[in-house]
Amino acid sequence: MKKRRLFYLLWIPLALLWISPLLISILTALKSLDDLLLAPAWSLPSYWHIGNFATAWTIGHLGRYILNSFVIAGPAVVGTLLLSSLSAFALSYYRFKAAGLILMIFVGGMLLPFQMLMIPVYRFSISLGIYNTYLGVVLFHVSFQLGFCTFFLRSFMKTLPRSLFEAAKVDGASDVLLYARIALPLIRPALAALSILEFTWIWNDYLWALVLIQSDKIKPVTLGLTVLQGEYIAQWNVIAAGALLAAIPPVVVFLVFQRHFIDGLTMGALKG
Amino acid sequence: MRKVTLVVLGIVLLLGFAGLAKQTIVLNSYMSDPAPKAALEQLVQNFEAANPDYSVVVNTFAHEDFKTLLRTWLPMEKAPDVVTWFAGERMRYFASQGLLEPLSTVFGEDGFTSYFPSSFKSSCEYGGETYFLPQSWYWWGVYYRKSIFQSLGIQVPVTWAQFLNACDKIKSASYIPITIGTKYLWTAAGWFDYLDLRVNGFSFHMDLTAGKIPYTDPRVKKVFEYWGQLVAKDYFIKDHAAYSWQEAANYLFTGKAAMYLMGQFIFDAAPEAVKSDLGFFRVPVIDGSLGLYEETPIDGFMIPANATNKDGAKLFLKYIASKEAQESFAVQLGRLAANKDVAPPDVQAQQGLDMILASDGVSQFYDRDTNPEMATAGMNGFVEFMMYPDRLDSILQQLENKRLEIFGK
Amino acid sequence: MKSKWWAPYAFLAIPLTVYTVWVIVPIFRTMILSFTDWDGLSASYNFIGLRNFLALFHDRVFLTSLINNVKWLVGFSLVAVPAGLGLAMLFNRQLRGASVFKTMIFLPMTLSFVVIGQMWSWILEPRQGILNMVLRALGLGAIAKPWLSDPAIVTYALIGVALWRQISYSMILFLAGLKNVSPALVEAAYVDGAGAWQRFWYLVLPLLRPATIIAVTVNIIDSLRAFDIIYVMTRGGPFYSSSVMANYMYIEAFNNYRMGYGSAIAVIQFIITFGFIAVYIIHSLRGEEK
Q1: Check: complex ipTM more than 0.90
Q2: Exposure pattern of A188-207 as b/e (b: 16+ CB <10 Å)?
Q3: Could you give the 3-state DSSP secondary structure of residue B181?
Q4: Which of B169, B192, B173 is nearest to B182 (CA)?
Q5: Number of domains in chain C
Q6: Any residues with CB less than 8 A from the CB of B13 and at least 6 apart, and which?
Q7: Cβ contacts (< 8 Å) between C147 and chain B: which residues?
Q8: Is 3.30.1490.20 the CATH classification of the domain at B20-137+298-354?
Q9: How far apart are CA A125 and CA B101, in angstroms?
Q10: CA B282, CA B194: separation in Å to the nearest integer?
Q11: Chains near B, with 3+ CB pairs < 8 A?
Q12: Number of CB atoms found within 10 A of residue B107's CB
């Protein structure tokens, strides 16, 4: 048991050290602007300025932005999971010549630095008339995440024993039924895991919201925070407060799905 | 897909028409700081009250993002109606591509100079046409801690020799003579601009930024000689490349550093307790035979050529140009209004205005006066010089190569 | 009831179409742009063949970026992967508070990178930054360097910051993989007299192969695609010394009005990444067959 105590003694301080930037963010969020400009970053605030959170919420319109983030991330995650499960099923259950090539196409799209897609995608949304709309951003996220999600879900579906499908087929099940009643339920943990990853990534997306959204009314929280970065002066205390508030939803999603998350990732890893 | 989109658009437009009898003016702005943002909102409200047929939608962006996005908005069919921007080369570049709307009808018969000082004219036009509406401007100066100067018995330096003297005294007393944050490069350009203006004069500087003079010219090198005097004696803060301008200002505010060559907005950022101790003086004179030139970046508005509601936009700009609008904005922010009928809002502003009125010419700032690509290369070169002064020759050669690439001969 | 031949295509129809339209076509568009001199603004541009690519080989900044990306690649694959594995092994126990540890490790991934970059900039500040203050307090003042303004070490400092997030990510991937290593199997090996190292190397590691493949692949891609940490903390400075391909491409394309040139950089980055991934995946697939 001494070993256990040693373990805690060593790793608790190290874990705290690990999250020290986050602790500094919290400290920063509780400072007044004068404190920020006059004292070093790691010093304690001269007084606990909780007002920053309120400022971020009201003047920073954080409430509206967080709502927008939900409106974008929610449907995007659902859409991505739906479409990628379809393509994953196609690429795992069926044996056909083009399968390898199509898989490589999905993987290939993951490799490019996405900044380069900015202009073509921007122009494309304008010509389709969905620039500066929720639909435009959601559609883009769904499309863009398809590469990784298809790859990911496919390796899970590959682990499902073929016999299950064969048995169902013998019973006269259609392919759609195989997908919906067998494959999907069995990879539920994987879907939960992917939901967390996708939600966090889309929630924290900055670049695509910047490119595809112009109007203040539909901006997600990532953009909303940077508006607090003034032309000359950055109010880091308010920004940090806002960022902490904005980080709550992904953390909540993580905590809620956590069990599935860890379990889920293992299924594919075992035989993938 | 196209047909469905068109039908949907049609319905939306119809609904739009039915729902709002008002015309919309879309304004994209980079005024994300809370004070200017609020001041702009005030102007918008006043405009809407005076013109009930119009409604102005303001979209705000972070400064750096705005610079990137503006280039994507301008060429597209449905560009925003009004955008904030800077005067100078940054604006002219777009005008030369035909992406901006001429503003002559905004000023009517009275013309530009009835609203604004004639010295601003050249920064706001291209090819004889005005494309830029100035709203506010600010000056640059050497901001200093009065208490440090007082305690060391230093007078405000007017000549270069006096300035070096002052730096020496400050350094001996264990203060940092000059603080600067060069992480984002432009602060170094401030030093270059001023030294160039002081050593070589206004027309030389304008020609240099226009790409007409080689960077390897001995007159350019002379600028770095003076600069080198400051670098060699370690008058600048150490490791300045690690600091943003704001972080470097920290040293000035906490009284560890004595001076900072900076724009007027540093005063906005200063904590209340420090404000009364902050003063500024004109960058010291090097060549007494030359005139006095200053940097006065001008901020304002433009109308994209592809805007959807140009008439509305022009009406809005006409309001912005007016004395009331300019005054309201300037008073709230302690800045100087471009409109010449507006008096400076406070003592500091008066001092700044006096300094400018006593000068013989104004420039816009390196990265607003020259081609953007040249600006990036130039500013990188300046910071490199500040860190490695013995690389001067190779730095100048590289800048010259860049200049030839961009401007041709 | 055999499946129709068109069944897979029916499933693939919508996803593949959407993906092609929104991702693949823009990629091709970018590739085409790399052969032009477009500035991103003008209505027209010219095709200039391979001139952008030839210019890249003489471009000092691009070559610096390339070398830096290799440093990132080495950093991520040689540090993030083993460290992630090590931490996963460490916290994969029935300990009270194990999930607290895991959550704490997950947190770096949740905060906006703009804020993270700023916080780390403050930590690494030469004079008042907490890292240097601690080093000086411990008498290690000699290594209290100007982390972000010394061209010789800035890239390593940035890699360090990025690793902070990357190790978290890798740890989570390996934690998942370790769930499959049945403790019973490991116990059996222990009883059989296998030492700790042997247990790890011959038993655990092979069972972790799928997680390892994902972790290594992800780290390769992320290291070659690194952008946000660099952009937020140094913009590639001081004077390009910390520049990486993605950062340089962004500045060239969007700051300097050289969209064609920037596209060429992106294409090269794509090819390099693809090369590494392909080599790695083929190698590991071959290993699997053994």
Answers
A1: no
A2: ebbbbbbbbbbbbbbbbbbb
A3: coil
A4: B192
A5: 1
A6: none
A7: 242
A8: no
A9: 25
A10: 10
A11: A, C
A12: 18
DSSP H helices, chain C, are 7-19, 25-33, 51-58, 60-75, 81-91, 98-106, 113-123, 130-137, 154-178, 183-191, 196-198, 205-207, 209-224, 228-233, 245-250, 259-289
Q: Which among B8, B31, B78 has the least Cβ separation from residue A231?
A: B31
Domain interval for residue C114: 60-289
Residue C231 lies in a domain: yes
Q: Is B373 on the interface with C (CB under 8 A)?
A: yes
Distance between CA atoms of residues A62 and A246, nearest Å = 8
Domain membership of residue C43 (yes or no) is no
For residue B398, what are the CA distances in angstroms to B366, B384, B386, C254?
17, 12, 16, 22
Give B154-173 as a DSSP string.
PPPP-BHHHHHHHHHHHHHT
Q: What is the CATH number of the domain that holds C67?
A: 1.10.3720.10
Q: Is B22 exposed, middle or buried (0-12, 13-18, 19+ CB in 10 A)?
A: middle
**CATH number, span B140-295+371-407:** 3.40.190.10
Reading the block at residue B143, the tokens are 């901001």
Q: How confident is the model at residue B13 (pLDDT cuts 50, 70, 90)?
A: low
Which residue in this structure is represented by tokens 């739009």?
A: B16
Residue with tokens 């100087």: B336
What's the pLDDT score for residue B157?
A: 94
Confirm whether C16 is domain-assigned.
Answer: no
Query: Distance between CA atoms of B32 and A234, rounded to whole angstroms?
Result: 10
Residue ranges and CATH numbers for the domains of chain A are: 64-265 (1.10.3720.10)
In a domain, C14, yes or no: no
Distance from CA of C123 to the nearest CA of B (A): 11
pLDDT digits (tens, 9 = 90+) for B372-402: 889 989 999 999 999 999 999 999 999 999 9
